[in-house]
Each structure stands twice: as C-alpha cells, then as structure tokens.
Write a structure and sequence with these properties.
Length: 156
C-alpha cells in the first residue's frame, strides 16, 4: 500500500506538516498544492527520501515550479494544480478545473487556493482540496492499494 500526504496553502508554516510526517507510518509521497512552494522545497530538503510533488500557487510569484502536473503512482493518475488559474473560488462545481484536468484522464484531482477542505467522488476522478494546514488545520491522506484509491480529509 502507498500512503500519500496532501498539503496546500501552508503560507510559510510547515510545523504541523513536520508533526504529521513524523507521526505517519511509511509515507510514500507528499503532494503540496501551492502557496508556498518554498515550504515544499523545505520539506524536500528535510525528507530527501520521500518524493515531494508541488505546484506554484498565486502567491508563488518567483517560483519556477509548474502550475500543474500529472503524477502516476501504482497506476493511479494524480493531477495537481493550485486552482487559482481555474477560478476555483468562484465556481461551485469546479467545471474549469475539471475541464483542465480532463485531458490527462486522472483518477484524482488535487487543488488548493480556497483554504476550504473539499472532496467530491462523483465521476471518474475524485476531486480533493485538503484545505489549508495553516488556516483551517486540515490536510488529506490518500491510500493506493492494488490500483484502488481511498482519500480522506483530516483535521488536526
């Protein structure tokens, strides 16, 4: 089984992330959906043996990180973006985000920006916003086993 931790909108505060990672059993990967990529880079230097995937958010002005990416883990395709370019704060059903991800045929779409945790299991792709570890005290976990994906949002 692969265990994935998903953070977003840390905004310069990774202390809770560090606590979560330290307490977690066998983390296979970490995803960070932007704001701030510097935080993801810090996690990368602290945990060089854990793959960390991250994208830039609307507050990552000088970051060279991509605005989105597709990662495949054990056959599960994961699309990640911050969401500001897809108007996630203004669209109830996140249609622009879904359309942007659609060409990658993902199983999981991760986004941030709103700071509000959200999960939608309708359709082929699970839509997941872990919220903000700094402002709402939430993050998400995903487990992949035998090509099956399970997600949950956790409040600390």
């Amino acid at each position: 089984m692969k265990k994935i931790l998903i953070f977003s909108d840390t905004h310069g505060d990774i202390n809770r992330c560090l606590d979560i990672i330290e307490k977690a059993d066998s983390v296979s990967a970490i995803f960070h959906a932007g704001d701030y990529t510097g935080d993801a880079e810090d996690l990368e230097s602290i945990y060089p043996n854990i793959p960390i995937y991250y994208v830039k958010g609307n507050n990552d002005y000088f970051s060279k990180a991509p605005s989105h990416m597709l990662v495949t883990i054990d056959g599960v395709k994961i699309f990640i973006t911050h969401g500001h370019e897809q108007n996630v704060k203004y669209e109830y059903k996140f249609m622009t985000l879904r359309k942007a991800a659609e060409k990658y045929d993902p199983d999981l779409i991760i986004f941030g920006h709103t700071h509000i945790p959200y999960t939608d299991y309708k359709g082929k792709a699970t839509l997941l916003n872990p919220g903000s570890i700094r402002y709402t005290g939430t993050y998400a976990e995903a487990e992949i086993e035998n090509g099956k994906l399970k997600t949950k949002i956790i409040e600390v």
